[in-house]
Amino acid sequence: MIPIPETDALTPETFRDEVLPRDLPVVVRGLVRDWPVVRAARTSDEAFCEYIRQFDRGYGVDTFYGAPSIGGRIFYNDDLSGLNARMEQSPLSTALDYLLEHRNDDPAPTLAIQSVVISRYLPGLETENRLVAGLVPDDSDQRLWLGSRATIAAHFDSSENIACCVAGRRRFTLFPPEQVTNLYIGPFELTPAGATISMVDFDNPDYEAHPRFREAVQAAMVADLEPGDVVYVPYLWWHHVRSLHSINGLINFWWSHPEKGRGDPRNALLHAMMSIGSLPPSHRKAWRSMFDHYVFGAGKAAGSHLPEAKRGILGDMKPDAVSKLRTALARALSRS
Prior knowledge:
Blueprint: E1 2-3, E2 6-7, H1 12-22, E3 26-28, H2 36-43, H3 45-53, E4 60-66, E5 73-74, E6 85-91, H4 92-102, E7 110-117, H5 118-121, H6 125-128, E8 141-147, E9 151-155, E10 160-167, E11 170-175, H7 213-219, E12 221-225, E13 230-233, E14 238-243, E15 248-255, H8 265-275, H9 281-297, H10 319-335
Parallel strand pairs: 1-12, 2-3, 5-9
Antiparallel strand pairs: 3-13, 4-6, 4-7, 7-8, 8-15, 9-14, 10-13, 10-15, 11-12, 11-14
């Protein structure tokens, strides 16, 4: 595995002009060390939990509970009919009490609180713990993740991601998108938290069942984060996350580049899998040429020979034209 490149300074300008264009991860040591939530975590587990608790509005949040026997790995059960941990809506304060109560158990049960929208569930936390102005878009989606010693299988997000370790330690193992072939991805229809995951047990890889995982390991990039450290996870990069302390916390920022209203690329992938994946090989080859030309190749340049006013989807579409096309697509899908 390759260490993720590190820096101890990052300005909005260097992030925009140097980091983002490279499409490679980077670790920034100590970027958020002065956040109040980080200072509380460095004081004690109790201080961290009390700091979070003061913003809690009492709503239930998505919380995984797992028995000590799963060893912190939230995954499928043996026959893939469900998961090895149960999901509940728990008040955040209840979950924090659970973490404190069981932090010294050996073996300990697993608890993982997933993707808490801070502005809704913990209003005020985001105003006290801000990134450097201009580093991420103002409308970035800011979320909290916390729990016990837990392992989240490799998965991807269709967003840019800056993840800030605020309590405990976390190990990030990252893979570029092209490693999807070597990560042996699980079912789309049943996932632990909405994202497809690697079926490989990183602690005990079964190279007979997953021989290509050896290639993924060669491409992997890894870093351990301390409270105050930050990692940039590029768009669509696979990331496996292991929490290394009995109580861990992370705040992340998600944002995407496409204009709103143009649809989620994941839906396009699913429809292509359904509509093209079962075609004869010659037909799939022909459609690959179409996708290579219109989507991955020339793109808008494919219509450069047309008058600008007649380029339609091959040109710069106005919002009303995008809306009409989405409506037409929805009607076509409903008839197919």
